[in-house]
Design a protein that fits this description.
9% strand; three-stranded parallel β-sheet; 49% helix; single chain; 88 residues
Length: 88
């Protein structure tokens, strides 16, 4: 059985922060992302990480904490990974 993994695009983080899941009012959502990134369920691609780090805001600071988990998925992971559109 293949463990399900999801590659999250920058819009998941940006839209969440700017609209429905402001970290001040919905910290549980951000803890959920923290957990998923730290346990490998959510893959934070290096390009997405770099895009998010360009900002000078709370999101950029949070993303910096995930730096050790940033990666470029292997071809096998790309084959076995469903891209997440995470509907908000």
């Amino acid at each position: 059985m293949i463990e399900q993994k999801y590659i999250l695009d920058a819009n998941v983080f940006i839209t969440s922060k700017n609209s429905y899941y402001d970290p001040q009012f919905h910290p549980g959502f951000w803890k959920f992302l923290d957990l998923g990134i730290n346990n490998g369920t959510f893959i934070l691609h290096r390009r997405v990480y770099e895009e998010l780090r360009k900002g000078r805001d709370e999101l950029s600071q949070r993303v910096a904490l995930w730096e050790p988990k940033v990666k470029s998925p292997s071809p096998e992971e790309m084959t076995n990974t469903r891209k997440s559109a995470l509907i908000l």
